[in-house]
């Protein structure tokens, strides 16, 4: 199985001329030519359930949500919705319950900007399944990935986790000069070395607290559980804004 973790960045990426948009398009084109996925399961750090239950959207259409506020008007001209793979969504709920995972059907969300921005550049036109994270442990989200993989057996399903490994918005607002964080250095080193078990332990470190990874990196842990990777390939890395980094990784 193949999985991707790709940072979606600030909504301003929609109008900025930055290389990350080209990278997303190129990665999407390559995956489509190699794998030809029929469905993308997306895990966004902005779809978070505080009830402790993972919510799986089961409505026919996953509508675009512009969940960002106070930005220039031009950013609200952009939106992307997608058809839901309802059959797979319900199979994931069923498999999750059998595995003892707290999971339930939902129809109150859609595609937030952490989902629809990368999807619009990488996999336009494909069906999507949208699943929430919780504030639970890396192990819980790894198990969620395993459940998604089980439910996807025999189908061409790709998983896409999004978010920024370093997400210090105070640095962004204060205009701090962009630079690579110690956390990013360590994370990428572990990825290159295939030390995925050690990545699961990063929340116990001081540098984790300093980096404030978006969504607690739970989308990444879900991708790891889905793929159970032998290797990771770093496709791109950037720090376009102070305090916020961008990372793209392919897992196999």
Strand-helix topology:
Layout (H helix, E strand, L loop, with lengths): L2 E4 L12 H16 L4 E10 L5 E4 L3 E2 L19 E2 L2 H13 L4 E4 L6 H10 L4 E7 L4 H14 L5 E6 L6 H5 L8 H12 L2 H5 L5 H6 L6 H10 L4 E10 L2 E8 L1
Parallel strand pairs: 1-8, 2-7, 2-8, 3-6
Antiparallel strand pairs: 1-10, 4-5, 9-10
Helix pairs in contact: 2-4, 4-9
What does the model show?
- Strand 9 (232-241) and strand 10 form a beta hairpin.
- The strands form three sheets. Strands 7-2-8-1-10-9 form a six-stranded mixed sheet, with helices on both faces. Strands 3-6 form a two-stranded parallel ribbon.
- The chain has one domain (3-251): LigB-like (Protocatechuate 4,5-dioxygenase, Chain B, 3-Layer(aba) Sandwich).
- The protein has helices spanning 19-34, 86-98, 113-122, 138-151, 169-173, 182-193, 196-200, 206-211, 218-227; strands at 3-6, 39-48, 54-57, 61-62, 82-83, 103-106, 127-133, 157-162, 232-241, 244-251.
- Helix 4 crosses helix 9.
- It is globular and about 45 Å long.
- With 252 residues, the protein is α/β, with parallel strands linked by helices.
- Keywords: Dioxygenase, Metal-binding, Oxidoreductase, Zinc.
- It comes from Metallosphaera prunae.
- Belongs to the DODA-type extradiol aromatic ring-opening dioxygenase family.
- This is Dioxygenase.
- One of its GO terms (molecular function) is oxidoreductase activity, acting on single donors with incorporation of molecular oxygen, incorporation of two atoms of oxygen.
């Amino acid at each position: 199985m193949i999985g991707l973790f790709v940072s979606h960045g600030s909504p301003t990426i929609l109008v900025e001329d930055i290389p990350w948009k080209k990278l997303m398009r190129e990665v999407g084109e390559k995956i489509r030519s190699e794998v030809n996925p029929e469905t993308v399961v997306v895990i966004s750090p902005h779809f978070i359930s505080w009830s402790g239950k993972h919510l799986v959207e089961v409505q026919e259409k996953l509508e675009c949500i512009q969940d960002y506020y106070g930005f220039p008007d031009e950013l609200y001209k952009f939106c992307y919705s997608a058809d839901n793979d309802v059959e797979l969504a319900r199979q994931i709920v069923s498999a999750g319950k059998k595995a003892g995972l707290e999971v339930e059907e939902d129809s109150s969300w859609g595609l937030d900007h952490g989902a629809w921005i990368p999807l619009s550049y990488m996999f336009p036109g494909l069906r999507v399944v949208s699943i929430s994270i919780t504030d639970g442990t890396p192990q819980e989200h790894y198990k969620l990935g395993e459940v998604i993989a089980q439910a996807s057996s025999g189908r061409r399903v790709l998983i896409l986790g999004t978010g920024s490994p370093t997400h210090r918005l105070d640095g962004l607002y204060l205009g701090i000069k962009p630079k690579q964080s110690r956390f990013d250095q360590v994370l990428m080193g572990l990825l290159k070395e295939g030390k995925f078990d050690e990545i699961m332990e990063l929340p116990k470190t001081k540098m984790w607290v300093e980096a404030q990874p978006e969504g607690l990196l739970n989308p990444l842990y879900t991708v790891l559980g889905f793929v159970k990777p032998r290797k990771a390939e770093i496709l791109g890395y950037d720090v376009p804004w102070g305090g916020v980094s961008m990372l793209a990784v392919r897992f196999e």
